[in-house]
Amino acid sequence: MAGGKIRKEKGKQKSGPYQGQGLGAGGISFHKSKGQHILKNPLLVESIVQKAGIKSTDVILEIGPGTGNLTKKLLEVGKMVIAVELDSRMVLELQRRFQSTPYSNRLKVIQGDVLKTDLPYFDICVANIPYQISSPLTFKLLFHQPAFRCAIIMFQKEFAMRLVAQPGDKLYCRLSVNTQLHARVSHLLKVGKNNFRPPPKVDSSVVRIEPRKPRPQVNPVEWDGFLRICFIRKNKTLSSIFRLKNVLSMLEKNYRTLQALQSSQNSSLGNTEIGTDTPSLGDSNGDQSMGVDDGSDDEMDVEDDDGDSDVEGEVSEFKDKVLAVLREGQFEEKRASKLTQQEFLYLLSLFNKAGIHFS
Prior knowledge:
There is one protein chain. By secondary structure, this protein is α/β, with parallel strands linked by helices. It folds into 2 domains: 195 residues, Vaccinia Virus protein VP39 (Rossmann fold, 3-Layer(aba) Sandwich); 134 residues, Helicase, Ruva Protein, domain 3. The chain contains 12 helices and 11 strands. A 7-stranded mixed sheet has the order 6-5-4-7-8-11-9, sandwiched between helices. Strands 1-2 form a two-stranded antiparallel ribbon. It has a two-stranded antiparallel sheet with strand order 3-10. β4, α2 and β5 form a beta-alpha-beta unit. This is rRNA adenine N(6)-methyltransferase. Belongs to the class I-like SAM-binding methyltransferase superfamily. rRNA adenine N(6)-methyltransferase family.
């Protein structure tokens, strides 16, 4: 995005002064260590603003405004722009560029790390971000209250393709399912590396994210824990995954702990009932759990069950309980790589009905 920055994780691209609009003759030298790259194609900037569907009454959150070329376009169509920028030099440039202009009282600049910043109310988010924060920022936005109308974000191309991937696609993964539970995601634009100065090593894509309303009634921590197991080996059958020793051990520990909690609470509260919607064990901040999901296939230190390892009857009994859930929903031979959102939700409900939880 013009005036914005892409900071690649390794940041090894060379960079020089940016001679863009609104800068003095000396320009600004971009930090090579941050891999800062400027979108130089004004037609792409116009297209991004147009596809955002901005209204004259909209408050716009811009992440990574850089020197403010996109900021200016956003100010022209929206009511107000709140720009979050980490680089102090860019903050000064933004303030200098828009002071004594008609836009000065409609621009608020916040200097800081967007992941550590309490975001104010906004209607639309436009972001050109360091690729290494793609996942945590996505889920920070999805859990933001109150829900915004949409976000238009530029990601590394492969990450963007994982966000929009459908069951059966090669890139379909836990990130795809997690994101699409909470939002409608659509691909808007491909942005080739040569549209930047200096060009990065990877292509980019612009994605539109619209939070679902109402929000899904799923415990986000348990949902993510459930998906982590399903996607341990996404092309393996669920029956083979849920036979793994480590998986069974973890689930049984949760099962026994929850039973003990329920027994204790029932004793102290008399007739109070605890149903299958009991909050899952662990941190209730779902974005903390899902923020580490970078879209790569999950790898877990797992041990295959050879069928003769059940020394104690309780272990065998619990394994039978787990496999019975898969049989009930006819999921034994199904694979995570091909399951739809509704199938994942249904299988989780069957496990919860049997008292099995995932966090």
